[in-house]
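Re: duplicated header lines in exported structure tokens

Our pipeline writes sequence and tokens for each protein into one text file. With two proteins the header for the second block appears twice in some exports. Here is an export where it did not happen, for reference. First protein block:
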Amino acid sequence: MSTRRRPPFLPTTLETALLLIYPSILLIGSLFGLLDPNARAAPYNASSQSHYAATAPSYFAKKSNVFNIFFVKQGWAWVTFSYFFFLLSHPHAGKPFSLSLTPRRIRGTVRWGIVTVWWIFVTQWFFGPAIIDRGFTLTGGQCELVREAEAGNVLMDEARQFVTGVACKAVGGKWKGGHDISGHVFLLVLGSMFLFEEVLYVVWRAGRGKEERTIVMDDGAVKSAEVEKGVEGEGEQGGGRWGLTGLLVALSGIFIVYFLPRMVPVVRGIIGMPGI
């Protein structure tokens, strides 16, 4: 009797364990904010999604803490450095510390590029304002200077130009109203899950761990991702506050890069799969 395989769009046991970490952290953080007297009493600045520095319940609640400045603010640079160090140093992708362009390195770089484009779209630019800024304005948010303009204190034409959080804050305004996706949660989830997907499966396969991922073949059959190993080998011989939405937006990018290829052979042929 044949064993029913896991659907390709479902996470493996390892991925499920990793994915459960993120909402658990958000839940614990929310409960801590509700139960801790100091955190509950400290005023919260909704526009900056942080506590005021003078009344923050702890050093790590301040935006000026060293981890926020040197790691979170420069988060994607650290993710990029870590990934390419792994890609160029692990023998799975090619000769360690050589610059040879193996198929695995090329496909790994393509995957990094797609995830990076998603990071840019969400936080930096999306044919104008980033998705975070567009989402905020679409849900009713705007720069407070717009309200002042409506009251006749500021020119409306000038105020309407402040369509991004950066532009608003640069002129001394604040985002008011709307749903502000947590950029911090988005960055931390996207970056960590990207590295988990890229590194853990390589290490797992090197340690002869069981392959749980399944893929859809050209003929529609669902098989273990193990069947891709032989094909890939042949090719190489030839050459915070709104934390939940930040979590969901980050995972949507992860789905495109790491789950969609399992279901669509054409996409898998272009960007490949980690560890295969």
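Second protein block, exported in the same file:
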Amino acid sequence: MKLLQLPLVITSLWLPSALGAIRTDLRRKNVEVAEIDNNAHIDHEDQEIVFKEGADFEDVFRCTRGGGRRLTFNADNTIAACCAPGQRLLGSLDTAFDCCAPGHSLTGTDRTGYRCCPTGQFYDGIRCGSACKNGKIMVDGDCVCPSGTTATADDGCKALAGCDSGLVTGACYLLRMENGHTFGYDSGQLYYSAADHSNQHRVGKFKLCKNERCSSGSSVDPNDAVRIRDTQGTITQSSETQGNRWLNKASDGNHVGRTSRYDDAGLFTISKWSCGKYCLGGFEAGVSYACPSDTPSITFTPDRQACTPVEIVEVPCDIHAVENNCMWEKTPGTCGPGTADDCHCPKGWGFARHDYLGLQ
């Protein structure tokens, strides 16, 4: 077996700091990886990445000596890991990274996890097995139709007409709680609660995410684990500097707050509830109110069936986008002066889900 040979990358441009050329703070996904920018000098012969700092100093990044592993790069030289000789570094930031032997591919899903399997096989969360066809996925060794679809007579899969959740990843939503208030971050109490909008309580604008990059357009089903990202800043700090924080995993009566770390984010689920409403639960633990209050917060609880009823309303992610004009229609007698209940919100603006958002 031979070490994966990649073209030598040499550049005459040096960053003033090694921290500007390589990121080692990426979330661990099967193997530890580092993200490298185009200004890094990769020395394949000495198995080092060298950064020049000023006129007299160098900084070196390399695999731990004596461990038998060598610097290995993905296909476009943007990600590095320490792999055994002969292994390839496969994967992406949206899935996972792993060192795979020749004749293997990295396969799986966000739900099952990702592992190296012989080419043509699929990882089902337990083992590698024969790859499925006709749109089916491997679950516990069997090829089945994915969630939200049903089998057809020709052994394929088709979507369940009219039975999607109405929610997708990457869109922005408001959460209105049972007390009629919107859910948002209280910069005085340092946690989320359902309260009036004020100078310290800002309404949250939330994205439902299945991965750290919060890739858009994937249906959010009741059995999906999602992390919730608040794109809003705080009253004193802008969305650009303090937005995109995750709701954390505070439990046992501790109020859910916010964190900048994806790994510290809580794992939530969302299911349809009574007509026009949803229930916010947890993937590994349930979600309930933290304590009796007129402006309640939420907390994770051991009961996995516990959930908190909410109304979910889609809003623009960017309030300056021209496409916002198409969110609802203003025609005589429907969206003139009066309540928002008279507005017609066409299914087909953005993603096809408005019929499920309780806005009509």
